[in-house]
Write a structure and sequence with these properties.
The chain is an all-alpha fold. It is built from eight helices and no strands.
C-alpha cells in the first residue's frame, strides 16, 4: 500500500491505529491501574539503599573493606523483597500474605509504605525514585570510605 508523499510516516489516530505517543500513554495508564503493589525492583533497591546507609557507620567503625561492604546490596535487596515471598511460596501462602498486609513488613525496607495506594499510583515515579535513592546510597557509601583515606 503506497502512501502519499505528504502523508506522515506513521498512521494517525483517525486511521484507527494509535500513534506511538498514544501507545506509550496507554502502557503507562495500564501499569498504574494494574499494579496492586510497588514493583519488585523498587522494593529491592529501597532495601539495598537502606541497608547500605545504615551499615556505613558499622563498616567504617570496624574497618570493613568497601568491596566487602558492597555485598550488602544483594543482601539488602533480598531483605526488602522478602515480604513478597507469598507470590512464589508453595507452602503457607495464606499466612505469608497476611504478614505481607501487616505494618510489620515496614521493617523490611519500608515494604508496607511502598505498597500504599499513593505510591502504587505513581508506578514509574516509584521506580525512578528507588533508582535515584539507590544511586545516592551507593555514592554515600563510596564517599564514606574516601573520607577515611
Amino acid at each position: 500500500m503506497d502512501r502519499p508523499v505528504d502523508a506522515p510516516p506513521f498512521p494517525s489516530v483517525s486511521e484507527g491505529r494509535q500513534t506511538d505517543r498514544g501507545l506509550i500513554e496507554d502502557i503507562c495508564r495500564s501499569a498504574r491501574t494494574v499494579a496492586h503493589m510497588a514493583p519488585a525492583i523498587a522494593h529491592f533497591l529501597v532495601g539495598a539503599s537502606l541497608l547500605l546507609v545504615f551499615a556505613l557507620p558499622l563498616c567504617l567503625r570496624y574497618g570493613i573493606d568497601r568491596e566487602y561492604g558492597l555485598w550488602l546490596v544483594p543482601l539488602g535487596g533480598l531483605w526488602g523483597i522478602t515480604p513478597d515471598l507469598h507470590n512464589i511460596a508453595p507452602l503457607f501462602q495464606r499466612q505469608l500474605y497476611a504478614f505481607h498486609g501487616s505494618r510489620w513488613v515496614d521493617l523490611f525496607g519500608l515494604h508496607y509504605t511502598l505498597d500504599r495506594p499513593i505510591v502504587r499510583q505513581e508506578y514509574l515515579g516509584s521506580v525512578f525514585g528507588s533508582i535515584l535513592a539507590f544511586c545516592l546510597a551507593v555514592a554515600l557509601f563510596w564517599a564514606g570510605f574516601r573520607v577515611l583515606d
